[in-house]
Request: fold
Amino acid sequence: MDAQLEIISACQTRSFNYKLDTNLWPVWHHHPEFDILLVLKNTGHYINGDYIGELKPGTLILTGPDLPHALHALEPDENDPDKPALAVIQFSKYSMGSDLFDRAETAHIGDFLNEASRSFEFFGTTRDKAESM
Reply:
């Protein structure tokens, strides 16, 4: 099954897009931007490419560009803006400036993004700090 292309227009005019989604995205989709996804509620599973992982509050995932992905909750969506299900940051290397990650002080970030282009799940202190914020 082909993944649906999602157009994230905010990343064409801004460095990044931040949003709180009221539900999870069960639609198999892709886009040229990276996603940083923090699950705020719900349990279930996520699919990134050919990997299936567990979803629970505090799950923190980086999804690479053009990697098909979907999030499936076990609970029904509430669509309540006062109780968001997911915090999302979307960006591309282009939207951040094509040479930003070539500079000495940020090259390690560019290296990490290249290595994590298939996806990456954060655990430990990083995940705990993101969840507390």
